[in-house]
Amino acid sequence: MKQYLRQLPAIHELQKDPRFKSLETEFNLSDVQLTEFLQKEIGKLRQSLLAEETLVKEKVPDFAGQLFNLVEDRISEWQKDRLERVINATGTVLHTNLGRSRLSATSIARVVKTAENYSNLEYRLTEGKRGSRHDIIEDLLVEATGAEAAMVVNNNAAAVFLVLSALAKEQEVIVSRGQLVEIGGSFRVSSIMEESGARLVEVGTTNKTHLFDYEQAMNEETAMIMKVHTSNFKMIGFTETVETAELAALAKKHHDVIFYEDLGSGALYDFKKHGIGDEPVVREVIESGADLVSFSGDKLLGGPQAGLIAGKKELIARLKKHQLARVLRVDKMTLAALEETLKQYLGDPEKINELPTVRDIIRPAAAIQVQAQSFVDRLQSESSNYHSELMASTSQIGGGTMPGVEIPTYVAAVKHHSLSSEQLAARLRRAKPAIITRIQDDRVCLDFRTIENTEMMALVAGFVACE
């Protein structure tokens, strides 16, 4: 194969080829960019020939044509969106792998407006002086939670780390053994605590922890009692935990001890009134006496990724001054989306359905049934290669939220005449936009709890394209 190395075209020859200018125009590239792509592909082809990995049948192979084809494929792959739109047909509202919460239309508009303009991110307009981004939405968080003060960092794990580092470093933090949870990506509460410099004191057992367990562990080294809401699992049976109000009262008996509750998902809306789960509302936890609470922005709140911390003014002030606060701060677009999300909670209660997360969780099964039936009818009329029917099923909340809670829903169960359910699901994932489904009883199931009416045409088209 080494004899063909001399036949590889030189870069300057390829630059004169009409296909060079054609690719530049098609992909909007400069001479330098396209040349770099060609150099990389020539390098790969040269190595392949040296290793005798490339099979050459022609005496005078068309290396130039081969290289331009390779470069065209490479550029197409390089220019495509890495973060692609998908249709979530799983019915899991807070699907971590699919981006969790979708923003409301007003939040999206606010992000766009903030991104394309300068803003008063760290500037006090009335005084003409430098300000703090912590001030942007603090009043909204205070109003929404009932806390004295509040701040925002980039996610809830960061919030936990900041609280422990700033308020309990080299001191003891008491946590029930049953609350030493591990969240996605092998991220453990105990590990965060170790990295923060706080000393973990475990009390109770995996399934039962009593108030006296906490009382017996208290000493002059105790800085904090920490309660972790077990958002991503649920223990049933012979179990017992200590309520927030009891732990808050215990901390107050020891004047310098802080009671901090990590809520994980954190809800500003009471889903319990719809018979969905038993997630505590943040305001209720504050009213029960917690000195600090932290929770996520992109889970039950339905906003952007963020970690929200609310509580006593003096403690929040200490957190804001800590060096980590700058490391963990959020950008202007996160603040814009969060501001608009909080305003929707504080506005007209009748418009809460404008938040996609809240709307999808409380959406009645009857409305989902109508939408699913519409899809079944349309698919049957568009293609004879599918058999589809309506089925009662259940949806999950997702995102490590409300484990074990299943909400009644309806799915379209689809079977292809010749493809297996796994083959069909794989083809749907390669559709544009990608359609993510679930497989049940050897049928591809689409849960319409998480499918917009505006996505119906793309959904049907995706199935037809997979025939």
TrEMBL record:
It holds the Pfam family SelA. Its EC number is 2.9.1.1. The keyword Calcium does not apply. Its cofactor is pyridoxal 5'-phosphate. Keywords: Cytoplasm, Protein biosynthesis, Pyridoxal phosphate, Selenium, Transferase. It catalyses: L-seryl-tRNA(Sec) + selenophosphate + H(+) = L-selenocysteinyl-tRNA(Sec) + phosphate. It comes from the Bacteria. Converts seryl-tRNA(Sec) to selenocysteinyl-tRNA(Sec) required for selenoprotein biosynthesis. This is L-seryl-tRNA(Sec) selenium transferase. It comes from Planococcus notacanthi.
